[in-house]
């Protein structure tokens, strides 16, 4: 028996669940889990269905589903194949290390095809784990030249997603457009406060009591793309700057890996600037 994930988004109307399940049953597919959500404000319907059975003619199944759904419906049929990713880094190692260790022990849910960095700092660690590392220097280059070099490397591989693991370069609108809906970023959740360098020192000096991290899809609006997941931790007067930075890194790792797991398991829909996440 083969596993199949069915993802559907469409305008909402009465009878959608009945129509969908009837088509799946007619194709001898057994539903083992089904989650659905209606965005009442936008009159939109979303569902994720995990099935088992012999898929047979995938195009025929997709066509039949579309026949039983409203106009403008989107249907994706996903067999259980691991996603392929490229990771972009600068100097900080904590998020990259978490990704590569899980990749090494086959628990990431995806395969890391390559790591691309604008410094050499993380080459040795990456290559020790058998992953190719590509250095692209950003100095004395305009953004378009730098990004063209990065894209040339990415395009050598079959990549489903780009993961910005503390990659500290701002990407252009053209670059983001080329990989729309495929770039995941992680940052501290102090934004829009404490912009720029040393955010944890700024937070410490303001006596912040909660620190957190946000994982989101990248859009043209810097750090404002659809949020996938967020977490916070409480801190107090016992935390100095070093302790806050250490706690911040731990929560950044946790949030990024949680977001990646959700994405690699096809549990995230993007609707405008929001997400629907079926955990």
From TrEMBL:
According to its UniProt record, the EC number is 3.5.1.10
Q: Which InterPro entries match?
A: ACT-like_dom_sf, ACT_dom, Formyl_transf_N, Formyl_transf_N_sf, PurU, PurU_ACT
Limits of the ACT domain: 5-80
> What would be an example GO MF term here?
formyltetrahydrofolate deformylase activity
Short name of any one Pfam family annotated for the protein: Formyl_trans_N
Keywords, comma-separated and alphabetical: Hydrolase, One-carbon metabolism, Purine biosynthesis
For this chain, the family text in UniProt reads: Belongs to the PurU family.
What is the protein's given name?
A: Formyltetrahydrofolate deformylase
- Give the source species: Pedobacter ginsenosidimutans
């Amino acid at each position: 028996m083969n596993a199949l994930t069915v993802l559907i988004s469409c305008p909402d109307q009465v009878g959608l669940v009945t129509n969908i399940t009837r088509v799946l049953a007619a194709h001898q597919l057994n539903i083992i889990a089904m989650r659905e959500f209606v965005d009442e404000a936008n009159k939109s319907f979303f569902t994720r269905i995990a099935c088992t059975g012999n898929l047979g003619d995938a195009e025929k199944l997709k066509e039949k589903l579309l026949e039983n759904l409203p106009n403008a419906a989107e249907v994706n049929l996903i067999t259980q194949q691991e996603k392929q990713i490229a990771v972009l880094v600068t100097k900080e190692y904590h998020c990259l290390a978490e990704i590569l260790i899980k990749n090494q022990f086959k628990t990431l849910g995806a395969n890391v095809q390559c790591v691309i960095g604008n410094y050499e700092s993380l080459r040795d660690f990456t290559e020790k784990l058998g992953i190719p590392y590509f250095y692209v220097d950003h100095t004395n280059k305009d953004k378009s030249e730098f990004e063209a070099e990065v894209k040339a490397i990415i395009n050598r591989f079959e990549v489903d997603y780009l993961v910005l693991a503390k990659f500290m370069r701002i990407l252009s609108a053209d670059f983001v457009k080329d990989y729309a809906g495929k770039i995941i970023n992680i940052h501290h959740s102090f934004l829009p406060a404490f912009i720029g360098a040393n955010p944890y020192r700024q937070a410490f000096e303001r006596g912040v009591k909660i620190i957190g991290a946000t994982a989101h899809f990248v859009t043209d609006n810097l750090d404002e793309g659809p949020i996938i997941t967020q977490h916070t931790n409480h801190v107090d007067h016992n935390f100095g700057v070093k302790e806050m930075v250490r706690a911040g890194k731990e929560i950044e790792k946790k949030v990024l890996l949680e977001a990646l797991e959700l994405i690699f398991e096809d549990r995230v829909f993007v609707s405008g600037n929001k997400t629907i996440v079926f955990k």
